Amino acid sequence: MPQLTYLEAIRQGIWEEMERDPTVFCLGEDIGIYGGAFKVTDGFIDRFGPERVIDTPIAESAIVGAAFGASLTGMRPVAEFQFMDFIGCAFNQISNMVAKTHYLWGAPAPLVLRGPSGGNVHGGPFHSQNPEMWFVHNPGLKVVCPATAYDAKGLIKASIRDNNPVVFFEHKYLYRRIKGEVPTEDYVVPLGKARRAREGRDLSIITYAAMLHTALEAAEILAKDGIDIEVLDLRTVAPLDREAIIETVRKTNKVIIVHEHSRTGGLAGEITAIINEEAFDDLDGPIIRVTALDTPVPFSPPQEEYFLPKVSDVVREARRLKAY
Amino acid sequence: MRKKEDLGKDRLIWIYTQMVRIREFEERVKRTFLEHPGAMRGHTHLGDGAEASIVGALATRNETDFVMPSYRCHGYPIVLGTPPRNMMAELYGRKDGLCKGFGGSMHLADPARYFPGTSGIIAAAIAHATGAALTAQVKNTGQVVYCFFGDGAAKQGGFFESVNMAACWKLPIVYVLENNEYQAYTHISLEDANCMAGDPLSKKAAAFSIPGVTVDGTDPLKVYEVVGEAVDRARSGQGPSLIESRFYRLSAHGNAITVPPAPTQFPEHEAIGVYGNKAEFQAAKANDPIQRFRSELIKNGVLSEAEASRIEQAARSEMDEAVQFALASPLPSPEEATNYVYA
Asked: Residue B282 pLDDT more than 80?
């Protein structure tokens, strides 16, 4: 199987869906002639033409509104945000319309809202956020956060084929940093299904996106101490794969949740509540959160490093929990 | 009516000096990507090419008038008197930065100099500036707000919502739409309805029944006259105007963000890098507003060659010192990251 970067895997996934289905089209800022700020749609306009690879004005609210209207009338739009931070400009359309349409009208809205999120690139407070929780709290949306090249391609394809609106977060730190084997034949990764990224019996780390790699690195270090870590990659954060979460809790009885967005109101709180509701008796220790701090993403490099969860944080907390 | 003929020699030299200082600051920012690779992170967006427009507009300003530009914001505080060394330190994310290293290039603020703050979100500040004008009106302070934004921002809902509001309430604000021909990486001919119809972007003003004027933004004295009239109108209670100031952005949209430790880099201008149109870029370079104004001042006997050189040398020294200051300034301590979340 060929090795692809995370970015190339997403690019290929969208490309194949556009080849497969003429109702799929892309729109967004600088995605056509320039090929997108991160070059995810590089070369698309040459293959599919400006009717299906549309350079828009800088107008996120209208981009989402127009994508939504197109999705109601038979198209499958894939709208790019240059940075996912800018999705805030379109929040009303997404939260008040896109998310609720099927509930109100029974009308499917098959659109994908995608773009780069995440920190560790010193991009400052408007170019580094992980705003997935803004959307997890909106019933009706699916929220996808891939961590590997294989999943990135399989999930973007599944998202485009899904009849629900999907907010698709691509971690910009992983774009060209992560490579993996990606099949050449057609495949999808189902939405709403987690993946056991590492088998272990002592302790479970539940995570997703760039933090998967932080967790796996920590697990390797802990393995040398004889601590056997299981890592669950959620892949989709709405809807959550509750069964997979419960299954790993029942197996290891100890849980650390790692995410890159800030702590309060973060996904770790929701996962903790699910475990409390469904597997409280299986716990042999407190559920531990390793998250970013409750601040905006700092601009200055030493402060951003301080803000983000690190391998050493995971290792420290895992040792503490193992000894509990 | 303001007439450029009313500007005295000192004021003309002041305008030239500020233009040169802005250019030198931006040149130093750009050079840092080569001279100190990796030292400056995040996005920086430069205003070279905009100097005549910025300084011509601000030459009309009263000392307590607010200035609220977009994220491409380095030029304005330089004119307002903000020390470039603190601005430069901010761009490097250092402790002695204007915002203690918490803001970076796109998020400068100097409230004491009537520069309340800028945003990395396109068009966000158009609404903020409108609110500042509301304050001036409610408090009856006589202040005018100078709101600067790019042609890209003029396609955001925030632009239309704000200008309509300001027109309804006759707010004391001047909207300066800086048409530098590129919305990030895409040429204006592909994304602006007025441009595509062959109309000036100032035509948007008609939608709000306010004056809309297009001015050559490469000539500081023309900008002075046109913005001056709009400012006088705003200050006398007649409401907002929209000025389209046309010039050419002489650098690329901004540097590319890279994953550390890979150094950030400043790419070639989009005209060349994206559209392969070297001639367009070279024509703009040949029409450099600073060189043109310099020649004009020398021809008219306002400046001698030696005086012009002295101004340029002083700007070089000033910005060189700013870079040295920034590089010598410590990075903020990691633990400080949790400060300032609440007032």
From this structure: yes
pLDDT at B42 over 90: no
Q: How far is CA B140 from CA B54, B133, B231, in A?
A: 26, 10, 16
Residue A229's alpha-carbon distances to A202, A215, A293, B160, B197, in angstroms, are: 6, 9, 24, 54, 63
Quote the CA–CA distance of A209 and A229 in Å, as a whole number.
18
- Cβ-defined contact of B186 to A34 (cutoff 8 Å): yes
Does residue A122 have an active-site annotation? no
C-alpha A203/C-alpha A317 separation (Å) is 11
Beta-strand (E) ranges in A106-202? 112-117, 142-144, 166-171, 179-181, 195-198
C-alpha distance from A215 to closest chain B C-alpha (Å) = 19
At the topology level of CATH, where does A195-322 sit?
Rossmann fold (3.40.50)
- Three-state secondary-structure class, residue A290: strand
Give CA torsion, residues A162, A165, A171, A174, to 10 deg: 10
Nearest CA among A80, A77, A70 for reference residue A30? A80
Q: Are B257 and A172 in contact (CB < 8 Å)?
A: yes
Q: Distance from CA of residue B204 to its chain's centroid?
A: 21
Cβ–Cβ < 8 Å for B288, B27? no
Instruction: With a cut of 90, say whether residue B262 has pLDDT above it.
Output: no
Global pTM value? 0.93
CB contact under 8 A, A306 and B341: no
Give the separation between CA A242 and CA B339, rounded to whole angstroms: 36
Chain B residue numbers touching A7 (CB-CB < 8 A): none
**By a Cβ cutoff of 8 Å, what residues of chain B touch chain A?**
41-43, 93-94, 101-104, 106-107, 119-123, 152-153, 155-157, 183-186, 190-192, 257-260, 270, 274-275, 331-338, 341
pLDDT tens-digit map of B155-169: 999 999 999 999 999
Work out the average pLDDT over B217-242.
Answer: 98
Domain boundaries, chain A: 3-181, 195-322
> Between chains, do A126 and B123 touch, taking CB under 8 Å as contact?
no
In whole angstroms, give the CA distance from residue A40 to residue A152.
Answer: 12
B38 band by pLDDT with thresholds 50, 70 and 90: confident
Pick the CATH number of A3-181 from 1.10.10.10, 3.40.50.970, 3.20.20.70, 3.90.420.10: 3.40.50.970
Torsion over CA: A295, A297, A299, A303 (sign)? positive
Helix (H, G, I), strand (E, B) or coil at A309: coil
In chain B, which residue's Cα lies nearest the Cα of A90? B157
Helical (H) or strand (E) element with A270: helix A267-279
Strand partners, B245: B178, B215
Class of domain B4-327: alpha beta
ipTM of the complex in this document: 0.88
Only one residue has tokens 């796109």, namely B106
CA distances from A311 to A222, A289, A315, B81 (A): 11, 13, 6, 45
Question: Is residue A307 a contact partner of residue A259, using CB atoms and an 8 Å limit?
Answer: no
Alpha-carbon distance A219 to nearest alpha carbon in chain B (angstroms): 24
Express each pLDDT in A25-50 by its tens digit: 999 999 999 999 999 999 999 999 99
Chain B CB contacts of A175 below 8 Å: 259
